[in-house]
Write a structure and sequence with these properties.
By secondary structure, the protein is mainly α. The protein has seven helices and four strands.
């Protein structure tokens, strides 16, 4: 019968297929294992070793240890000596801001509010002849408009007038020119003339600081000026300058002093 003849071949084919599949699975598994075992070591990636932190590195044997870095003092700080090395309190140098200010200059205002006010003088005929002559020469040089005309009056060495509360390097006439608002020094000449045209005071009479000083505001406390004198003050300074000077209680703009012997002693501004 036809159904019987068809069954046998189909069964045999199925058995054969299963057998073939089983036989194929075993060689495939063996082949895969064999391939992994045959991979060469040089073909494997090298193991990654994490880097050690710099502060945990261990010095090699016989190596010289590096010294600790030199610690530089920060700006604005002061290194202190050990307690055992400190000088006694009476031998330590005072701090710069504790140093006493130099108040020995005759060009500095020394106003005693309790002292009687000095006489304000406008009469030039009351000046000693050497003083009147030096004043006249200074006014003549200022009016010329040529600052070089001051050079013979400045002198040299100890005879030079004080032109600053600090040190002056170089030519004193060039320094005066640098104080001027213009390039030719004519503004400072105008100030010089205006100062010498004001009234004056005679201070320190009979002492080592005997001086004739212009303008007279140098010897008068600002709060003692009357309205007329304030008008004379505003010929030399502005109202804003006056308000600033009230903080000091004294006139601190340009002033000029001449000794009784006729030596030009100072021409300075400042406090």
């Amino acid at each position: 019968m036809r159904p019987h003849t068809d069954f046998a071949p189909r069964a045999m084919v199925r058995v054969a297929a299963l057998g073939l599949a089983a036989s194929l699975m075993l060689p495939l598994h063996a082949t895969t294992a064999f391939a992994l075992s045959e991979i060469k070591r040089e073909e494997l990636p090298a193991p990654v070793t994490p880097p050690k932190p710099a502060d945990q590195s261990t010095p090699t044997e016989n190596s010289v240890p590096m010294p600790d870095p030199v610690q530089k003092p920060q700006s604005g700080t002061t290194q202190q000596a050990p307690a055992g090395d400190q000088a006694p309190a009476d031998q330590q140098s005072p701090a710069e801001d504790e140093m006493p200010a130099d108040t020995t200059s005759p060009a500095m205002p020394h106003l005693d509010p309790e002292a009687p006010l000095p006489e304000i003088v406008y009469d030039l005929s009351r000046l000693p002849e050497p003083v009147a002559r030096m004043r006249s020469l200074l006014v003549e040089a200022a009016k010329s408009g040529d600052i070089e005309k001051l050079r013979p009056l400045v002198g040299q060495g100890d005879a030079m007038p004080q032109l600053s509360f600090g040190d002056i390097e170089g030519d004193p006439v060039a320094f005066l020119k640098s104080l001027s608002g213009d390039s030719d020094g004519q503004e400072i000449l105008a100030i010089l003339e205006e100062v010498l045209n004001a009234g004056y005071v005679h201070l320190g009479e009979g002492t080592d600081e005997d001086l004739y000083v212009w303008p007279y505001f140098f010897g008068i406390p600002l709060d003692k000026l009357d309205p007329r004198q304030k008008v004379e003050l505003f010929k030399i300074v502005t109202a804003g300058d006056y308000e600033d000077m009230k903080q000091y209680g004294a006139y601190v703009f340009y002033r000029l002093g001449i000794t009784p012997e006729g030596r030009w002693a100072f021409f300075v501004a400042g406090d």
